[in-house]
């Protein structure tokens, strides 16, 4: 499967087209807030939340209105500019979840162990280079405070099996709380084509 960098390299308009697609959904009145409602429901009030692979901020941004403090990381500077424009009350940063030096960036070092919730939705994880997957899972674990929770989601058919993914999460230190197949809280089973893993950093 192509990585996000492959897509943007092959099509320089890809990022702007992606941003326009979500703005069009909003203009058409489509409900795109299911992920935000889910994350809000499992978060403590006034939580500190990290949107990992935030894109335009379409999922993280609405959590601000629900009283949370939100930060986001994405490797695409075009999408980060949209997030900054649309949700200026959040903290948005360019950064690659697959990078072993992600939190060595001066503006990101403060994130270690400071978040109540980290989430990555859509197909962010499916676009990560296979060589960087273990690093990406570690980079999702590291920002969590002890007892903090992660919501990690992606679809099947992107070259990363669900069981393999969950084994990587366990190896990184995550404890498993709940597995679902949709943000409507439908149960996950072996026939599911989408996984939402609710995980926890042990105390």
Automatic annotation (TrEMBL):
CDD domains named among the record's database cross-references: AdoMet_MTases
Record GO biological process: methylation
Keyword Transcription: no
Methyltransferase domain: residues covered: 49-148
InterPro entries listed in its UniProt record: Methyltransf_25 (IPR041698), SAM-dependent_MTases_sf (IPR029063)
Domain of life: Bacteria
Pfam families: Methyltransf_25 (PF13649)
PANTHER family for this protein: METHYLTRANSFERASE, UBIQUINONE BIOSYNTHESIS O-METHYLTRANSFERASE, MITOCHONDRIAL
Protein name: Class I SAM-dependent methyltransferase
Lineage: Bacteria, Bacillati, Actinomycetota, Actinomycetes, Mycobacteriales
């Amino acid at each position: 499967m192509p990585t996000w960098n492959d897509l943007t390299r092959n099509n320089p308009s890809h990022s702007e087209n992606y941003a326009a697609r979500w703005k069009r959904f909003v203009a058409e009145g489509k409900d795109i807030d299911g992920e935000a409602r889910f994350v809000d429901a499992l978060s403590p009030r006034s939580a500190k939340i990290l949107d990992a692979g935030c894109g335009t901020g379409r999922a993280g941004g609405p959590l601000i209105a629900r009283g949370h403090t939100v930060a986001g990381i994405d490797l695409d500077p075009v999408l980060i500019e949209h997030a900054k424009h649309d949700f200026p009350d959040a903290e948005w940063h360019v950064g690659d979840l697959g990078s072993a030096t992600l939190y060595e960036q001066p503006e990101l070092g403060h994130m270690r162990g400071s978040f109540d919730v980290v989430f990555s939705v859509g197909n962010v994880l499916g676009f990560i280079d296979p060589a960087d997957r273990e690093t990406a899972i570690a980079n999702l674990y590291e920002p969590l405070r002890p007892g903090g929770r992660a919501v990690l989601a992606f679809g099947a058919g992107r070259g990363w099996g669900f069981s393999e993914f969950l084994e990587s999460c366990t190896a990184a230190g995550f404890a498993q709380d709940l597995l679902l197949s949709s943000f409507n809280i439908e149960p996950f089973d072996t026939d599911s084509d989408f996984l939402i893993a609710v995980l926890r950093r042990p105390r």
